[in-house]
């Protein structure tokens, strides 16, 4: 008898490639989520800095902080919503090539796809919240004095 080992160890060896593939996909998914949040944060921060005088005027004329915050949050969520729809279309288009990597889940599983979109929307809202709140707290006098 050669290669005698416990059943658990043999099963672990058999599934090691699948575990590695899953770990790599999870790593890429985490990196993608981080890039999404950094991209939304950076883009919205840039938009807020460009529109600082306009926001200062709105605050000076009596705009509520909640209205300014919700304006920038809705603007970011609109972009994320369109990107989510494009991602859904790509997921359906690439479902055949990804089906070999999925175990126990169909490539077009609505619960999984909805869960992913909800996670991305939550992360995007958290990333957009910081610049939106910063926009609402602009001091009107300082903003109007800047060039």
Chart the SSEs and their pairings:
Elements: H1 7-14, H2 16-50, H3 52-60, H4 65-93, H5 95-98, H6 110-136, H7 140-145
Helix pairs in contact: 2-6, 4-6
Describe, in plain words, how this protein is organized in 3D.
The chain has one domain (35-145). α2 runs parallel beside α6 and α4 (65-93) runs antiparallel to α6 (110-136). With 147 residues, the protein is mostly helical. It has helices spanning 7-14, 16-50, 52-60, 65-93, 95-98, 110-136, 140-145. 80% of the residues lie in helices and 0% in strands.
The run of helices and strands is HHHHHHH
The backbone outline, from C-alpha atoms, is elongated
Can you summarize the main beta sheet?
Answer: none
Spans of at least 5 consecutive residues with low confidence = none
* Tally of contiguous helical segments: 7
Relative helix content: over 70%
Percent of residues in beta strands: under 5%
Q: Helix/strand/pairing class, anyone?
A: mainly alpha
The count of domains is 1
Number of strands: 0
For the CA atoms, what is the radius of gyration?
23 Å
Provide mean pLDDT, rounded: 86
User: What gap, in angstroms, lies between the N and C termini?
Assistant: 83 Å
């Amino acid at each position: 008898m050669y290669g005698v080992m416990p059943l658990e160890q043999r099963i672990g060896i058999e599934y090691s490639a699948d575990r590695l593939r899953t770990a790599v996909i999870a790593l890429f998914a985490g990196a993608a989520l981080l890039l999404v949040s950094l991209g939304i944060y950076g883009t919205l921060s840039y938009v807020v800095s460009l529109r600082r005088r306009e926001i200062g005027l709105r605050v000076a004329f009596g705009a509520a902080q909640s209205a300014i915050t919700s304006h920038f949050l809705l603007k970011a969520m609109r972009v994320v919503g369109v990107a989510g729809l494009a991602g859904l279309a790509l997921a359906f288009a690439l479902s055949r090539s990804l089906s070999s990597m999925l175990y126990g889940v169909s490539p077009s599983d609505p619960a999984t796809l909805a869960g992913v979109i909800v996670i991305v929307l939550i992360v995007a809202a958290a990333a957009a919240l910081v610049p939106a709140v910063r926009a609402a707290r602009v001091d009107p006098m300082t903003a109007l004095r800047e060039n």
